[in-house]
UniProtKB/TrEMBL annotation:
Keyword field contains Transmembrane helix: no
Family: Belongs to the DegT/DnrJ/EryC1 family.
Protein name: DegT/DnrJ/EryC1/StrS family aminotransferase
The organism's taxonomic lineage, starting at the top: Bacteria, Bacillati, Actinomycetota, Actinomycetes, Micrococcales
GO MF term list: pyridoxal phosphate binding; transaminase activity
Transmembrane segments annotated in the record for this chain: none
Example GO biological process: polysaccharide biosynthetic process
SUPFAM superfamilies listed in its UniProt record: PLP-dependent transferases
Amino acid sequence: MTETSELPMIPAARPVIGVEERAAVDRVLASGMVAQGPEVAAFEEEFAAVLVGGRTCVAVNSGTSGLHLGLLAAGIGAGDEVIVPSFTFAATANAVALTGATPVFADISADTFNLDPASVEAAVSEATAAVMPVHLYGHPADMDGLGAVAAEHGLQLFEDAAQAHGATYQGAPVGSFGVFGMFSLYPTKNMTSGEGGMVSCADEDIARGVRLLRNQGMERQYANEVVGLNNRMTDIHAAIGRVQLGKVWGWTQQRRANAAWLDEALAGVVVTPPVREGCTHVYHQYTVRVEGASAAERDRVVQALREEHRVGCGVYYPTPNHQLVSLARFAPARELPVTARAAAEVISLPVHPSLSEGDLERVAAAVHAVVGAGG
Ligand SMILES: *Cc1c(COP(=O)(O)O)cnc(C)c1O
């Protein structure tokens, strides 16, 4: 048995739930009123003020619901095409497909892993209604480039900001650019409400649309105006989210400090994640490339990091969406070469705010040992 096999596992992610969150939940439970109510309303206002420059926010029961309802409120449906990246979590394209519209996959830029405006431009057709970039791993998408393509072709712009709470592009927060922007509040995201999503809305029409759709199409009880769902957030979840909102900035600073440390420690061994000028990165994931690796070689690196060095790490995402059984019917005729290479080469290393200095040293030493030795 090697010495390292006795080390504790460094988790890839660790949600931080404190006594304040537990007290907040207890307060709601004690009130006896647990469904959507005053906690949700307060969470929406506070989230808007802290994270999206005051834009109207509407809370829902998951990030996926937020995308779905945002798309529906923006009028997306059968006959429309929405251009999305293939290199993302399947929820992005799932939400488009669930409206009856067609997700059209475009390629990404090699540095940030985000939608490439030139590839988006090449994917525009008569049916294109919108483009929905993802701010993947917490790095903002190229909003100027994508905004120019959208303006040129009269497309709506939406944002999947599930992984990017607090990231900024040219000084403005992500989630403040699109007709709507969605933030996930799943436990492994940069902040959580247990499950949940927040939709940041460009105007009151979109906000009203999302509010109606999350509540069976009702503003007034039993006066249903549109066909809707029950995608409401509970006051229990909102109470957790409100506490986390007060902590997310500090955690983001710690994520950035951890990333800066890893950048220096891993330079020359793997391709560390660059940050584009005018952007701030919130490091939902710290994702490196094992340049030139095949998927099998990369998978061996991941296995060695986990099993020999006890470093939790992930591959986000090993299969591009257009190659998933569920979404392959939407696969484009064109190849997506940058997406294919990213899916083979990426590894996300621990960067979460609970890492100790010793943990960071172990992560760096492990990567040096496994990749520096030739993988
Ligand atoms: C997490 C995530 C979602 C979905 O959010 P849920 O809260 O899990 O429904 C959507 N898009 C991306 C890019 C995500 O990472």
